Amino acid sequence: MVKIVLLDCESIGLDISLDPFRALGELLVYPATPPELIAERIREADVVLTNKCRLNASNLSEADKLKLICVAATGFDNIDVSFCREKGIAVCNVKGYSTDCVAQLTLAMALSLVMHLKEYGTYAADGSYTASGRFNQLEPPFHELRGKTWGVVGAGNIGMQVARVAEAFGCKVIVYQRHPNSFYPTVSLEELCLTADIISLHVPLNDSTRGLIGARQIELMKDGVMLINVARGAVTDEKAVAMAVESGRIGAFGCDVYSTEPFPADHPFYAIKEKPNVLLTPHMAWGGVETRIRLIREMADNIKAFLAGEERNRVV
Asked: What is the mean pLDDT of residues 280-291?
């Protein structure tokens, strides 16, 4: 019987059924696995399932029975794919499962920030509205999205979905990506920074995107630009972003991803987390209930395909 080990079930959510995995073999589930226990827990596994555990030479070298690693994500930067290729360990990810959910949070962040929902919600909740004696409150001023230029950095599945919804709100959409986009104008990163009123990031983390948005790019941006990062924390220079928020160069900032997760008390964003023009969320964009059910089913289908000698969502 195939031995399947799930290293970090808590990161996927304890409310989602794992029966699709149980139908394929003997399933051993760990809520979480600290780095020092990974090697021991995967030693006898044929298949390893993980979301965020880092798998590399230090913990894979003794897993002699391991044939397949299934990542519960699209990004696989936590897997040493070179080592896996060398050792003949297959690696699968899941593409496109979270497109709608991540795009949904991106637009929710933009709408919340542009409408100042944090401030207006607090005004009503803390009694200020009741005490005011006025039927309405219009401070701070808020704006429509219509007519704004939305710059999409990375026009993959998620970026394109964001572009379509932004366009439906009346935004002019421009994109930055390596290859020309047949639906929206493709511009350089510099032109996008110079032109966009709203910039959202949807690129994978790799050598070419690490630090993609830093002090130089921020200096090019319009004063008061809105920046939203739902990609990976390290695609930005987080210190430069925090400084730009403090100075007002970035007028509104939404972020769901961080170079260290959870971000510690000495992280650059800790000092700006309570600002009214900042909306930070705990890496939850991908995790809608329907999204996670889809994720589990896709991972199970990856395992089925592998056991049948077929290639499906293969990274290695």
From this structure: 97
